[in-house]
């Protein structure tokens, strides 16, 4: 946690979403799954964001899955599912790239690579930790509002950078 998966996905979404006809970014699948009707709540968000679909007639997973499959099968769609923490969430949300139009992409963000492999994703990208130069730059911008270390803090900054080992959220 804290390596920047969601931040990276948000930037990616902002940069490429205009290339797709239907787009959605589900912020926190795990939380939404728990608080809002399980998979049906997530499916309703997908339909709302991609199609502007009125959710009042959707009362069960079968109906939602059918609508997603039928209405998006000819659409070039981008779906980002953030913070997936159980394989069952993906299975019950029931969205598969082959159900979507040509060129569609589903990006799944998870702390657990095992979930992604078990679900059968095409590729796994591991967000690298920041190198020492970028770590220093981020820390200085956040702590000092500058791009450089204040002289009196050089030793402290070196200790902090060593301790956090490139983890952006900690920085």
Automatic annotation (TrEMBL):
What InterPro entries would the database entry show?
Answer: Disease_R_plants, NB-ARC, P-loop_NTPase
Output one GO MF annotation: ADP binding
Residue ranges annotated as transmembrane are none
Q: Which GO terms describe its biological process?
A: defense response
Q: Give the top-rank taxon of the lineage listed in the UniProt record for this protein.
A: Eukaryota
Q: Which residues form the NB-ARC domain?
A: 1-145
This protein's name: Putative resistance gene analogue protein
């Amino acid at each position: 946690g804290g390596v920047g998966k969601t931040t990276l996905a948000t930037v990616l979404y902002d940069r490429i979403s205009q290339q797709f006809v239907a787009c959605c970014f589900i912020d926190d699948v795990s939380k939404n799954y728990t608080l809002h009707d399980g998979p049906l709540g997530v499916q309703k968000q997908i339909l709302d964001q991609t199609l502007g679909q009125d959710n009042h007639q959707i009362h069960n997973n079968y109906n939602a899955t059918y609508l997603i499959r039928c209405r998006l099968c000819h659409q070039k769609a981008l779906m980002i599912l953030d913070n997936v923490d159980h394989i069952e969430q993906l299975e019950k949300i029931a969205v598969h790239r082959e159900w979507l139009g040509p060129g569609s992409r589903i990006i799944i963000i998870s702390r657990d690579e095992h979930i992604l492999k078990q679900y059968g994703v095409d590729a796994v990208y591991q967000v690298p930790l920041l190198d020492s130069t970028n770590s220093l730059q981020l820390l200085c911008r956040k702590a000092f509002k500058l791009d450089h270390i204040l002289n009196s803090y050089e030793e402290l900054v070196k200790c902090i950078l060593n301790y956090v080992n490139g983890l952006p959220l900690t920085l």
